[in-house]
Amino acid sequence: MPDQPTDLKAKWDENKAQFERLCTEQEDLYDPKFESVFTALYEIDPDQREIYNTRGWDMGAALPEAVETDTLNQALQAVGVLGDEAARFVRYAEVVLQGKKIMQSNALLNLQIEMEKHQRQHTERVSPEGWRFYPIHIIAPQQFHAPICEELQRQALQGDGIFKNFTEIAERPDEALDVFLGVEVYNVKCNFQLFLSKLQKYRVTGGTLGKKFTHNLFDILNEIANYIKNNTDKPQGIRGHILSIVEALDNVPIWGRIFQILILQGLISLLENCTLNEGDNGFNEAQDLCNWLGELLSDKVCWFAMTGAVYGDEDWERLQPLCDFLYNTDIGRAVQDCIFKDEATDEATDEEQPDSPEAGPTTDTPNLPSKLNTPEVLGIFAEAQKLGLMDEQYKWLKGLQLLACFAREMSLKFKWGKGVNGNGEPRISWQPFELFYGLKKYTLRSNYNDIQKTGQQPTDSALIDQLFK
Q1: 426: three-class secondary structure by DSSP
Q2: Lowest mean pLDDT among 45-59, 337-351, 387-401, 445-459
């Protein structure tokens, strides 16, 4: 019988517990003298470094079944470590090797667990609100799934196969053309404060990147920004400079694409919030650069979503802030809508439709969808009318952001949403009000996301609080 998801998770938990025990034993065994033994070991056989190095090691590396005792003894004798100390070192080396093999095993289990989870969600038509990774489907007999998963894990960790990161561009910038373009130097004042604030709001800096990676990101962004400011008359040169930095990250598995996404998004934010206004010298050039950056970013975000099923629960916990941030960007939302549009369409057909296509709040005799035409809902509508939110025909009298707040509270109160989102919160069904008021799909969700981005509540939000207190 093939492993069921619960069996895979149990094995993962068992590995984790064993790994933690090994970590404790490793700390107890460690002696600073071991560093000189490792130095001698790597001089005797440089390939041993791949086995015992624990800093930035390649998780796709082929590890031996057991330590090479003869080679270890040569290194121990070379530095004069004998007796009990030598035995402790050999055990220390065994612990390191066992720990790394467990990490490899759990990486493979992560992949298998995530793939099965995504396949179950697809079968059950679960469509959570928020960022989603496209599931990887293995079209092969069950007995071939394990070796295929192993190969996918290797490709993911080494950035090969479908996980290979490469920057596609229709035509490379030709910096020699700049002298002929006649672009004048223009002054642009801008900074990354707004971009940093958004990253902090979604906890990307603290949750996904950490302090060191955050400093690295803004160091790169600052260098590019200074290059742009000093070379505004060289648009092809600017693109070539940015492209060289983006392409250099192609060879960094997993984190390379994350940095590419954040660099490109940061530069777009920089240009969108600069001091140039329409009609100013340089505005069109800056807008053209912003559009070019958007094309590069769309490709990177798309591949991030398409190859994300390899991430396990612990990876997901770290990536969640980044995914929340991307989901609330124009390009991130557009990519998600494009990838999952078929499922969104199917889901929409399952939702209850209004009794008449022409039904709407401005008709003399409003024909409410069945979800809105219940005594409980009509009771809330009556209170909303008293507060001046609706008229007698249920026409909404306030702005879209306030309607989004109202729709959200109604969905939560009557549990219209299906399942929970990536944060474990109840999903929101915006559709009843979007259908009734003739709004385009995602209009209300987009308006509510704008409130979350700015942190600024719409005018009269106190009326919504009063209505649902």
Answers
A1: strand
A2: 337-351
237: tokens are: 């040169």
The two three-digit tokens of residue 56, written as one number: 């930035």
Integer Cα distance of 222 and 229 in angstroms:
11
Instruction: Report helix angle 400-414 to 443-454, nearest 10.
Output: 100
Residue 174: left if φ>0, alpha if ψ -120 to 50, beta else—which one?
beta
Average pLDDT estimate for 359-365: 38
Q: Distance between CA 116 and CA 98 in Å, rounded?
A: 27
Pairwise CA distance, residues 305 & 339, whole Å? 9
3-state secondary structure of 61: coil
The CA distance from 303 to 256, in Å, is: 12
Q: CB burial class (10 A; 0-12, 13-18, 19+) of residue 180? A: exposed
Residue 32, burial from CB neighbour count under 10 angstroms (0-12, 13-18, 19+): exposed
Contact 120, 87 (CB under 8 A): no
Q: Which amino acid is at 318?
A: R
Q: Decide: residue 142, CB within 10 A, 0-12 exposed, 13-18 middle, 19+ buried.
A: exposed
DSSP 3-state of 181: helix
The span from the CA of 264 to the CA of 293, in Å, is 6
CB atoms within 10 A of CB 228: 23
Q: Is 65 or 263 the better-scoring residue by pLDDT?
A: 263
- Bridge partners, residue 53, by sequence: none
Give the chain's length.
469
Tokens at 446, concatenated: 């987009």
The reported pLDDT for the residue numbered 60 is 63
Regarding predicted confidence, which is higher, 81 or 137?
Answer: 81
Question: For the chain, what is the mean pLDDT?
Answer: 77
Q: Are 152 and 310 in contact (CB under 8 A)?
A: yes
Cβ partners under 8 Å of residue 332, min gap 6: 131, 301, 325, 326
Asked if residues 322 and 208 have their Cβ atoms less than 8 Å apart, the reply is yes
CA distances from 92 to 62, 97, 235 (A): 20, 9, 56
Residue 334 β-bridge partners: none
